[in-house]
Amino acid sequence: MREFEEFLGAQAPFDALDAEDLARLVAHAEVEYFATGATVVAEEVPLRHLWVVRTGALEVVEAGAAVDLLGPGDTFGAVWLLSGLAPPLLVRAGEDSLCLRIPDPRTLLAHPERLRFTASGRARTRLVAGAGAGRADQPLHRLVRPIVWCAGTDRVRDVAERIGAAGQSCALVRIGAEIGIVTDADFRRRVATGEAGPDSPVTALATVPALGIEEAAGQAGALLRMLERGVHHLVVNDAAGNAAGVLRAVDLAGAEVRDPLLIRSAIDEARSVDELAAACRLLPAMLRELDAAGLPATHIGAVHAAVVDAALRRVLRLQERPALGGVRHSWVVLGSLARREPLPLSDVDTALIWADPPDGAGTADPAALRTEAREVLRALQHCGFTLCANGANAHNPVFSRARADWIAAARGWQHDPTQDNALLLSAMVADSRPLTDPALGASLTESIRSHTRTSQFLRALLDEALCWRPPIGFVRDFVVQHSGEHRGRLDLKPGGLTPIVALARWIAIAAGDAGGTTVERLRRGAALGLLTADETDTLAGGFESIYHLLLRRETRTPPAGPAPDPTFIAPGELDTLTRRHLRETFRAVALVQARVDRTWLQRLPG
Q1: 3-class SS at 255?
Q2: Which of helix, strand or coil describes residue 30?
Q3: d(C-alpha 264, C-alpha 55), whole Å
Q4: DSSP class of residue 112?
Q5: What is the mean pLDDT of the chain?
Q6: I need a surface site. Which of 1, 149, 405, 534 has the fewest CB within 10 A?
Q7: Quick check: 262 pLDDT over 60?
Q8: Measuring CA to CA, which residue among 522, 472, 470 is closest to residue 492?
Q9: Per-position DSSP letters for 380-434, written without gaps between them
Q10: What is the rounded CA–CA span in Å between residue 247 and residue 273?
Q11: What 3-state DSSP class applies to 7?
Q12: DSSP state letters, 227-254
């Protein structure tokens, strides 16, 4: 037993386990001997164990060809065990081999979060989902402060005294069936300036309704809510929907959590584009700090998106633009920013939609609107953001139209998906989120909800999504570029993220609901029967793992000077464990793609 503890404890994924958990693991491990050619894992059989090679070698065979060779210390089965999918692979002994068969560690270990199935300890697979919260995901009931209640008729001076005596920074106000909030900032901003007197009713200061959040959202969720809405207080509601306490920005302990709020405040207070640019220059360092602090990658992406949203809204408020000011319009973000999952070096993709003449305050001049939109985007560039090199920008006539023209174009793409760029533009419309005038901007995705039920269009979209294939045709290493500046490297964005993002987008369009992140779309697909639970977990786990790998590479890219594209990775840059995990993830994603391709029509909601 001691020999096996030392053996497992010397290599990933077990090398971060403490002595007690190693002992538990070894106590449940079984030793098996396999003669050369013997089958260790049969094809299409769900796994219930991990296999670790002690001596000898195992061959991984797919479609009759050896695609991998496992040596002493190598582990097989993590992705398949966690996803619940049956691997379309045969594992056999390449020579006489001794192996350890270990049951699902989730049921054995006191600290399963310490298992390292990828190079990054924070990019965890489903194995540790929910196994323990980091400091940025504490439950909110541990952080809330007591509520200071007051009535709407109470005087401002009395409420201020009550807040001070309680040592708090806000009070909640009952106004009929609603709850409002008044904060110390309201007193400073409105009472000190004479806008409201000390004997005025507190309703003169209160914001109604107060912004709330559910206890279950966690610390990271509260941070995102504050960032998205630009507030420093939240009402925390219990499971019954009742106010249980108040959360302040400073209660989100740690500079790594407060820094995004400070950047958001600097953006909101910027009085010029130069001041806004100075605030936005803090973004790359903030993303690095959040990653170093252990915040999940998907939360970092959402924080990033919230800061970009705030910067674009501030640019729009800083300067008067007669053409845009004379017509009702909506600025819309596209792509990964719309899904709230940009990478640190992602472009900012935008679109513009304006009201049709009968609904607007004036007659739109498309040329003037696009000229002013270009000025807005130049200001955004001055703040350090990169515009879409492929033309998805709000001054481009393809991405700036009247509402009726947008709807007509979307219906045309759906009616005839064979026309030029119809599928690409449909996908971009599906990945859209309005930043201003949400009712107007939502007309883009409403066209998806109402007009995408033809099987021809859905089949064409699925074919487009399935064009993005994981690089599974390799032996021991990845399929890489064979020429050019990226020779010998694998682009993890189209090879890893995009196959999952594209399939999730197809699910969103087929479901008639284009909202949410990639993982939220996958979960929605499972609820509607478009995916099985195992398929959903496989795709979601693969997305989160690859997204985190790319995010870490981009946060470590030098801020100035030429640098290699961080989405291109040479196999030698990854440790053996990460390479194997990626290979298994790619094969699992390809398996889900093949299943959906065969049975998509039966999966569609009735």
Answers
A1: helix
A2: strand
A3: 55
A4: G
A5: 84
A6: 1
A7: yes
A8: 470
A9: HHHTTPPBPTTS-STTSGGGEEEHHHHHHHHHHHHH-TTSTTHHHHHHHHHSEEE
A10: 32
A11: helix
A12: HHHT-SEEEEE-TTS-EEEEEEGGGS-S
Helix, strand, coil: what percent of the chain each, to 5? 50, 15, 35
CA 148 – CA 136 distance, rounded (Å) = 26
Q: What is the dihedral of CA 109, 519, 460, 452, to 10 degrees?
A: 140
What is the per-residue pLDDT across 126-141, written as a single tens digit (0 to 9) for each? Answer: 333 333 334 445 678 7
Would you state the pLDDT for residue 190?
84
The token pair that represents 420 in the structure block: 């030029």
Please measure the distance between the N-terminal and C-terminal CA atoms of the chain and give it in whole angstroms: 56
The Cα 496–Cα 494 span in angstroms is 6
Pick from 350, 442, 356: which is nearest to 396 by CA?
350
- Contact between residue 542 and residue 582 where contact means Cβ atoms under 8 Å apart: no
Cβ partners under 8 Å of residue 64, min gap 6: none
pLDDT value for 488? 65
The secondary element (H helix, E strand) that includes residue 319 is: none
CA 471 – CA 492 distance, rounded (Å): 9
Q: Residue 69 is inside which H or E element, if any?
A: strand 65-70
The whole-angstrom separation of Cα 213 and Cα 220 is 12
Per-residue pLDDT tens over the stretch 395-411: 999 999 999 999 888 88
Reported as a single tens digit per residue, the pLDDT across 434-449 is 999 999 998 877 766 6
Highest mean pLDDT among 80-94, 263-277, 315-329, 370-384: 370-384
Nearest Cα residue to 512 out of 485, 530, 491? 530
Q: What pTM was estimated for this model as a whole?
A: 0.74
Helices and strands (DSSP H and E) totals, the chain: 23, 20
Average pLDDT on 65-83 reads: 80
Based on its alpha-carbon atoms, the radius of gyration of the chain, rounded to whole angstroms, reads 27
d(CA 74, CA 70): 6
Number of other CB atoms surrounding residue 30 within 10 Å: 10
Reading the block at residue 589, the tokens are: 């994603």
Place of tokens 């977990």: 537
Residues whose CB is less than 8 angstroms from the CB of residue 114 and which lie 6 or more positions away in sequence, other chains included = 16, 17, 18, 21, 121
pLDDT for residue 125 is more than 60: no
Looking up tokens 């100075």 gives 278
Residues in Cβ contact with 91 at an 8 Å cutoff, skipping those fewer than 6 apart: 39, 40, 41, 51, 58, 59, 60, 61, 70, 76
Report CA-CA distances (Å) from 356 to 353, 370, 371. 9, 16, 19
Residue labelled with tokens 């030392």: 6
Gap between the Cα atoms of 595 and 466, Å rounded = 11
Which tokens is 239 given? 């499971």
Distance CA 603, CA 535 (A): 13
Angle between helices 297-318 and 533-555 (to 10 degrees): 60
What does the alpha-carbon distance between residue 577 and residue 247 come to, in Å, rounded to a whole number? 41
Distance (Å, whole) CA 195 – CA 205: 9
Distance CA 144, CA 543 (A): 33
Q: Would you list the DSSP string of 217-228?
A: GHHHHHHHHHHH
What is the pLDDT confidence band of residue 119, given thresholds at 50, 70 and 90? very low
